[in-house]
Hints:
- By secondary structure, the protein is α/β, with parallel strands linked by helices.
- The protein has helices at residues 6-19, 40-52, 56-76, 92-95, 109-121, 139-144, 170-180, 203-216, 228-233, 254-258, 262-268, and strands at residues 81-85, 102-107, 129-131, 154-158, 184-191, 236-243, 271-278.
- It has one domain (6-278): Rossmann fold (3-Layer(aba) Sandwich).
- It contains eleven helices and seven strands.
- The structure holds S-adenosylmethionine (SAM).
- S-adenosylmethionine (SAM) binds at residues 7-8, 10-11, 14, 86-90, 107-108, 111, 133-135, 159-161, 164.
Amino acid sequence: MIDINEIGATAFVIASIRSLEPEQPHQLFNDPYAQWFSNERALAAARQLDEVFPPSTTMVRFRTRYFNRFIERGIADGARQVILLGGGFDMRSHLFDNADVSFFEVDQKAVLLFKSAILERHGIQQSPSLLANYLQADVPSGLADHGFDPDAPTLIVWEGNIMYLPPDSIMPFLNRLADAIPSFRIAFDYFAVDLQNRELERDADLERIEGVERAMGASFPTGFPDLAVFEQQTPLRVAESGSFAGLAEEYELADMVAAYPEDWRETLKLYRYCVLERA
Ligand SMILES: C[S@@+](CC[C@H](N)C(=O)[O-])C[C@H]1O[C@@H](n2cnc3c(N)ncnc32)[C@H](O)[C@@H]1O
């Protein structure tokens, strides 16, 4: 029996949301593997997410498409390695299988042991992986033991992670990555509010974020009202940022987002993506 903690368990909820994509009238991505990591409990959590704030699972769909595009464009621009950091049950290493690109995964030991057991049952091999708490491990050298080349251009997908991490862990972690990997781009999603002190201008926003925390079964100690802190405290610069809801037109779902009540659309402005690269 593998004992997965509450942060690891969030990976089942996200995989469950992805597993429902074929039922959507307008599909945003294809992940036929997601159903392997779905279960009744995680599906119930996904339903709870939409009860507390109806656009929640739609935003997870948008973010999946966004990170897919980050990988596609990054590879087209010359990236030769992709790290799925806190990748959970992300199957992009198989979905984007490419002889010129190496994928690596990093997640907690219990999560990746569970994942590789499922993959093995389906005759698929787990990608080279570092089974560790990445805040404590030396990620670049741990991955180098699995064939990672710190000097090759690298994409890091840090999806659905940053909000779960202790606020004071993030800049030191990014600085350790920047010290060891000369050329990389890292993409992440985040809440653009001060979750550390729970200082939000609108009570409705805080209630919705706290409802999402309850549905996910884990807390969000960290948000970033201003991305300038990354440029002030690391050698990285903000290469791209925006709200996921702002991608609706590109994803041909503008009518759906426009039909949301104004108050929901205000809350959605807080859920955003960011790409950092060396300045
Ligand atoms: C919400 S899930 C997201 C999984 C995946 N990125 C996705 O979007 O489907 C968060 C994942 O990050 C992992 N994670 C969070 N903090 C971590 C840490 N410090 N070390 C290793 N893994 C971590 C969890 O174990 C979990 O699998």
